[in-house]
Design brief:
The chain is mainly α and 191 residues long. Helices cover 58% and strands 0% of the residues. This is Putative tick transposon.
C-alpha cells in the first residue's frame, strides 16, 4: 500500500540521518543490557492505550472471524476501568463505532508499551538498527508473554499479530516524535 511505501521512504531517510550523526555500525537486534528498569504506566496512559488497543483490534478481528471464544477473549466492554477516553471519543450516543479491547488485551499492550519505553529510555541504538520494525517486534515477542486466552487454533496468530501491529504503530509514533525534534525535517506523513 502507499502507506508502507511512504513509511519505508521516510524511515530510510531518518535512519540514514541517524547513522550519519552517530557514525556507528548498524545493529540487527536491540541490546537490552542497558535497560535498567521498566516503568509502570499511569492511569491516564492506560486510558490512551485502551483506545489505541481498540484501534489495533478492529483490524485483527477478521483473523478470528466466526470464533466466538476468541471474540470474547479479545473484546471488552464500556464497563472497563480504562474505557473513559474511548467512551468520550464515541461520536454516536448509542456507541458501537469503536472497539473495546478486553482486559487481557490491555495487559498485553501495557507490557508492550512498558518494554518499548524501556528501549527508548535506556537504549541509544533504536535509530541505528538495520531494521527497526523487525528488531522491535522480535524484542517484544521475546519479552512479552501475551495473556489473551484465545482458542488453540488462533492463539499463535493472534499473539504475533497483536504484538506486530502494536510495534508498527508505536514505532511510527516514536519516529514522528523524533522527527519533530529535528532528526528529519520530513518526518513520516502517515503518523
Amino acid at each position: 500500500s502507499s502507506y508502507e511505501v511512504d513509511d519505508a521512504k521516510y524511515l530510510a531517510d531518518m535512519l540514514a540521518k541517524g547513522k550519519q550523526e552517530h557514525g556507528e555500525v548498524e545493529a540487527d537486534v536491540i541490546d537490552d543490557s542497558e535497560i535498567l528498569f521498566i516503568e509502570e504506566l499511569q492511569e491516564n496512559e492506560c486510558n490512551i492505550l485502551f483506545y489505541i488497543g481498540g484501534f489495533l483490534l478492529k483490524g485483527m478481528l477478521s483473523v478470528v472471524a466466526g470464533c466466538g471464544h476468541c471474540n470474547s477473549a479479545l473484546l471488552g466492554s464500556t464497563e472497563s476501568e480504562h474505557a473513559t477516553l474511548t467512551i468520550l471519543k464515541e461520536y454516536r450516543s448509542e456507541g458501537g463505532n469503536l472497539t473495546y479491547p478486553s482486559k487481557d488485551v490491555l495487559l498485553t499492550l501495557k507490557s508492550c508499551e512498558e518494554h518499548f519505553r524501556g528501549i527508548i529510555s535506556w537504549s541509544e541504538g533504536l535509530l541505528r538498527l538495520r531494521s527497526p520494525l523487525k528488531a522491535v517486534t522480535d524484542y517484544l515477542n521475546e519479552m512479552v508473554r501475551p495473556c489473551v486466552k484465545t482458542c488453540s487454533e488462533h492463539s499463535d496468530a493472534v499473539a504475533k499479530l497483536l504484538i506486530a501491529n502494536y510495534a508498527r504503530l508505536r514505532l511510527r509514533v516514536h519516529l514522528r516524535h523524533v522527527s519533530s525534534n529535528g532528526v528529519n525535517e520530513h518526518g513520516s506523513k502517515t503518523c
